[in-house]
Protein: Mitochondrial ribonuclease P catalytic subunit
Amino acid sequence: MTFCFTGIRSFPKLWKSNPYLGLGPAHSSVCLFLKDCYGIRNQQKWFSLKTASPQNTKAVNLLIAKAQYPRKGDKGNKKQVSSDSPHLFAAGAAKKRSQMNPQSKDHVLSPVRDTIQLPTKPLNSEEWDKLKEDFKGKANFENWISSQMAHCRSSVDVAKSLLAWVAAKNNGIIGYDLLVKYLYLCVFHKQTSEVIDVYEIMKTRYKSLESGGNSLLIRGLIHSDRWREALLLLEDIKKVMIPSKKNYHDCIQGALLHQDVKTAWDLYQELLGHDVVPMLETLKAFFDFGKDIKDDQYSNKLLDILLYLRNNQLYPGESFAHSIKTWFESVPGEQWKGQFTTIQKSGQCLGCGKTIESIRLSPEEYEFLKGKILRDVIDGGDQYKKTTPQELKRFQNFVKHCPPFDIVIDGLNVAKMFPKARESQVLLDVVSQLAKQNLRLLVLGRKHMLRQGSRWRRDEMEMVQKQASCFFADNISEDDPFLLYATLHSGNHCKFITKDLMRDHKACLPDAKTQRLFFKWQQGHQLAIINRLPGSKITFQFRYLYLQGCLSSEIKGRNSKAYSQP
Structure:
């Protein structure tokens, strides 16, 4: 999907603040490209758990009482808690969104391990005793059943009856793990009052919480009038680690829900100050809040977000794109409207008539980038942690005495792309196919690849060496500096093959301009292997198909949305 905004003359900041936006006062359009990407956030637990005082008996009794007498308003309340949405665009990164889908009211769970079936309604003490007797597993029954209930998003009433049963058997004591799993269900179903009850228990009983517990409490409290206590929990996390982007998202969302715009922007700036890439849902929340607001300062901050998206190659998903569209159309005093358009293969937008920025670097840009990478990544980077100056010098001399290459191959990386196949065979297949096209090839590898073994056959490696120039570094050496050096040294025509994203090397570059040029160069020069079947042709494609301001032929004719101002 593509958004093409015309009439940007009303927002001169978009071109004045960034010389690499590719626009000037003579232009009146900007294109924003959107791509769905998926991310996994791994959150480590760093908090210690310490008992500060006895169990909050009053709170536990209240919990038990509510388990026996559920509130009328709780019935059927199964709204979904906001989950991580597609956010960071980085081609090839592991992208998978975790979606939390509420269970339907009549959902019947299938038996687990052919032993017991999860209850679909609250049980009394005798019924829980019977269920435990029927359990044949080796694990602790209470922990196992609570984990299954959390996994299957059981109703809060069922989980509450479990806690009441456990508390009755243990003199009112409920273990931390059970509380956290119950808290998860309360947050998932947006049972705010239950979240507050658990919060009071935990606050009384535990001196500090691990990050998972704090994160759940933050997410649950933001919907209540006690949302500012979520900010205190965020401060607790900061004492041990940098809070996650999800923690910041929840607090920002809470601030916006309660009309505290200053706190929301302060948290956003704090997030960026930690060099943490915000969730796209966080940015979307600012656009949603800004609808119909006549505030130049707020509008300028939203335009800064658009620049941030561009400069960091972040691509909004469809929902976020609609929020951007809605905000533009709601700006008081402006007259924006949306229409469908098609981007031609030439890169021309049929909505505004403008030609989109080319992915190709100019000769001046290429020389600038080449100098920066050789100086800041190759010569000034941290490559000597995994190689030696002598070996790097040996490689530079090797490249110097070779003609320019057409394709540089990260041999070990390519060989391991298909784990079920023999590594030397995969590498040979790739090299043989490219060599048939009369391309001059360089294969970078490690010395262990030349030793005979089950994964590396000597005869296949000899065939590789007959069809390509090869350089085998020490086994402890890092391949990436060699790959970048050889590709850049060979000229702007040279491509490279690896599934490595080069993020560390991009981070070594000193400024946003150089990083953006590196990303554009990477898009136009990195190849990926997308298909390899025995006896069939290997399929290659450019690693990155999308660039803000650039359209790949892979999306020719794909419908997109354009927004124009009459």
